[in-house]
Specification:
With 318 residues, this protein is an alpha+beta fold. The chain is built from ten helices and twelve strands. The structure holds magnesium ion (MG). Magnesium ion binds next to α2 and β8.
């Protein structure tokens, strides 16, 4: 037990900013701001399932927190507190120091307090719970889209999957795209500032974790609308523009996931505002399609004909 405390102390203790009482007591004591809703999310990463045994601990620490902050971003929330439950095969000081560097650097950059956690011995797994705040009733949700709206994405879609294709040798990426794609895969940047700015503008939002078609499908399903994506408008890495129609590339862009960009809907008359916001934040925002009456997600080719996404291996995304 003392060894466990030592590890926690050494790597994860910080002076709490926004908590009444952080690590070191039986439980953390948090005081949410008045008139704000608490937004809570949790995510577990397991070795052999979500990452390989030789994964860089620093990148892993970053990503374990980033995926949770991305979920808060998709709700339009400001991240405030985080809890970390680590299951470790052994007390490896070097691994922990690198993991905590990745985790705490990202936490510090968003002024998020680590307020509690747990360490257990067992096969490596990382469970993070993140808490954030949003103005009461103002959270972005999946069920707010209406027919006749625009569908938008932030940044570039498919980069994480393209990095995987590159690592497998299926595609050759060159810098600067290669660097951007690898960074997206290993150290994704949660779109926290964007999510907060979309409150009051977007009608629905989700983060792209499972793949564009799948995640947009969640919005369509919960909002009872049909989303139509024009494939040619989906922003992708410059190196693959000329081969965007090839199957593996198309699959990476439409189905890859792990990008942690935001996909959202907004009424047409908010387009100006979104273009202005894009400039202010320095984050690309692209309208990729529209919503209409109906169900599910359809993808169209440049000439307007429907793209057979089932044939491209997307059956399970419907
Ligand atoms: Mg999500």
């Amino acid at each position: 037990v003392s060894r466990e405390f030592e590890l926690i102390e050494r790597h994860f203790t910080r002076e709490p900013r926004g908590a009444v009482l952080g690590v070191g007591d039986d439980a953390a004591l948090l005081r949410p701001s008045a008139d704000r809703d608490l937004v809570v999310t949790t995510d577990t990463l397991v070795e052999g399932v979500h990452f390989s045994a030789d994964a860089d601990p620093e990148a892993l620490g970053h990503k374990a927190l980033a995926v949770n902050l991305s979920d808060l971003a998709a709700m339009g929330a400001q991240p405030r507190w985080v809890l970390l439950a680590l299951t470790l095969p052994r007390a490896d000081d070097d691994w922990l120091s690198r993991f905590s560097r990745g985790f705490m650097t990202l936490a510090d950059s968003f002024e998020v307090d680590l307020v509690g956690g747990d360490t257990t011995r067992g096969p490596l797994s990382i469970c993070v719970t993140a808490l954030g705040e949003v103005d009461r009733g103002a959270a972005l949700r999946r069920d707010g889209a209406r027919a006749g709206e625009d569908v938008w994405v932030s940044g570039v879609i498919g980069n994480a999957a393209l990095a995987l294709l590159h690592l497998k040798g299926d595609v050759r990426l060159k810098d600067p795209d290669l660097g951007k794609c690898l960074a997206r895969l290993h150290t994704p940047k949660p779109r926290v500032a964007l999510g907060r700015c979309l409150v009051g503008i977007a009608s629905s939002a989700i983060d792209v974790s499972d793949g564009l078609v799948a995640d947009l499908g969640h919005i369509a399903g919960r909002s009872n609308v049909r989303a139509v994506v024009e494939y040619s408008r989906v922003p992708c890495a410059p190196s693959v523009v000329s081969i965007k129609g090839h199957d593996p590339i198309r699959r990476a862009i439409l189905g890859g996931g792990d990008d942690y960009e935001l996909c959202f809907t907004a009424p047409r008359d908010r387009a100006r505002e979104l273009e202005k916001l894009s400039g202010e934040l320095g984050v690309g925002l692209t309208c990729i399609g529209r919503t209409e009456e109906g169900h599910g997600v359809a993808v169209s080719n440049e000439d307007g004909t429907p793209m057979p996404i089932e044939a491209a291996g997307f059956d399970h995304f419907r």
